[in-house]
Amino acid sequence: MENCLFCKIIRGEIPSTKVYEDERILAFRDIAPQAPTHILVVPKAHIGSVAELNEENAQVVAHIFATIAHIAEQEGLVNGYRVVSNCGPDAGQTVGHLHFHVLGGHELTLQMA
Ligand code: AMP
Question: How many C-beta atoms surround the C-beta of residue 94 within 10 A?
Answer without folding.
Answer: 8
